Amino acid sequence: MLRTLRIKNLAIVENLRAEFNPGLNVITGETGAGKSVITGALNLILGERADKTLIRAGEDTCGVEAVFELARPEAVNLLLEELGLPACEDRRLIVRRLISQSGSGKALVNDGPATLQTLARLGTLLVDMHGPHDHQSLLGREFQLDLLDDYGRLAAPRRAYQQAYSALLDLQAQRRALDGDDGQVAQQIEMLRYQIKEIEDAALTDADEEQVQQEHTAVANAQRIVALANALQAALTEDEASAFNRLAFCQKALDELAELLPEAAAWRDEARSAAVQIQELAAAIAGRAQSIEADPERLQWLEDRLALIHKLKRKYGGSIPEILKVLDDGRQRLRDLETRGERLAALERQIAEAEQQVQLLGAELGRKRRKAAKALDEAISAELAGLGFPHGRFAVELQAAPPGPAGLDEIEFGFAPNAGEPMRPLRAIASSGEISRVMLAIKSILAEHDRIPVLVFDEIDANVGGEMGNAIGARLAAIAATRQVLCVTHLPQVAARGRTHFVVRKEVRDGRTRTSIAPVAGEARVEELARMLGGRNQTSVTLKHARELLAKC
Question: Are 103 and 52 in contact (CB under 8 A)?
Fold first, then answer.
């Protein structure tokens, strides 16, 4: 579960800390108090992109930290190991996100650096977020198909189909590359032969450019190199005051000193070793200098070689390895074109086999989807009965479709909210309040089929009220019996169901707006529910009603 959420300098939040509990955590507060900042901070923890406009005015950085306590950390630890991040200690996962005015950002998981993609992957194991904008996503066919596959646990057959479909697309792309009239093919063959010959004639190697550049530098600066080498030889061994002669003097002095001071013998040996090293160094310098010739013809060849390399880099790639890859790809492409007839025939056979595999796997996926769809129909219809649709019916309708990225099926969620009404597409009849309840029903069903420990609902009760608020609150409380639920709500009927109740408040201090969050209990909670029931002007009636709500829950 999510144990702790810390927010600093994010939007109108200066410094906020919330300690959440198991079960249903409700978050309430007046409009504009900053409840959305709480869910926004969680979205940042889950990898949502951000920019410096989120930073509180006058500050340089903002940050969010979430501490999760995991009853089953195995799946998270496997992902952390895959990503090279520290494992959870004492079943605790700590995720931090920092944003600065400079535009740079930082994400940390258990104090190890992470990417936004890493946060998003972790988020799929930790939190299921549902906000107001998600209502409309329910109307999209792609989203509907994802929901069905999640419910039916069809990830494996869907992945198998997608791999086969991707292989088919690749083969079809190869066929398109070989298609064309004979004149076009002949032009391609001629061009490829020219490119291949041009690169082959250059006889490039991976180390070619570096070696040529080094030799060019040496030959172009031969006179200066020889002059420096001669000066070094003189300083090391040839001048009267050379290092070697000075060491020879030192050795004689050390011979005499060794007779008077025994440890000087070791010093004398070190001096002799240094003298030998100086001689070897001088010889190495002399030998290398002698191997360098200021040969104009060699220099010209080296310059021509460098020019050729740079020319090929401009035409075929920014480096020699890239040029050599162009050569390999060109050879393969030329072989394909020169054996075009045979290759096309082979591709046609492969495409036919791939199409058969796509149809086979797509049909199998479709059969499993239809089985899952029937069960999902019944489960969601039963959920909707407790959410104000006692005679409502929900249907997952699947129709055959041409092969696509997600299978051979086209999906449509159907909904008949009242008895005697025909089933129609959900997008055609549902009001926003109806969509909210359908989404809650779906989330309730899916929550029983996955292991995500935290569910977050941001205004799932939008555009509903009265008795429906009681039904939604009861359903959220039922979901929270097996996992942690965080719910931002405006309905007192929902808030009264919370095991823990937080109130978000906004106040002005020292000329600055600040948002705070704090748990409420006892009379303070009664007063908050009364505010939600009747506004700021609390009366004995609203207070009594608030107490009755709590007593019923």
Answer: yes
